[in-house]
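Key result, reporting period 2: structure in, sequence out.
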């Protein structure tokens, strides 16, 4: 099957395909099947995810020390670690829920 687009339609399609980082065929298949196709996240998002994970690892290490030595407020630290993990999941899900 061949589908024809006028110049403006093709330009709009090509721009959406470029933003999604999918092939044109994958983009069209995903769109036609009702999947939500999101733009690729900016380069800063992977760095943000890395930093959130790094902070989470540090919090986890502090929690282990706090449990072993009784030095810190463990419930408050555990709450901070859970908040950090929730933020990481939110960031990751927001930028990996795209088709393709």
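The corresponding designed sequence is given below.
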């Amino acid at each position: 099957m061949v589908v024809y687009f006028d110049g403006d339609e093709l330009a709009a399609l090509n721009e959406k395909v470029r933003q999604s980082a999918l092939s044109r065929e994958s983009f069209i298949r995903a769109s036609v099947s009702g999947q939500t196709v999101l733009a690729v996240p900016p380069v800063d998002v992977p760095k943000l995810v890395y930093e959130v994970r790094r902070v989470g690892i540090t919090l986890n290490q502090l929690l282990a020390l706090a449990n072993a030595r009784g030095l810190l407020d463990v419930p408050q630290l555990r709450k901070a670690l859970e908040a950090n993990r929730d933020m990481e999941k939110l960031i990751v899900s927001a930028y990996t829920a795209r088709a393709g």
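The mean pLDDT is 82. The radius of gyration is 21 Å. This case is discussed further under Risks and Mitigation.
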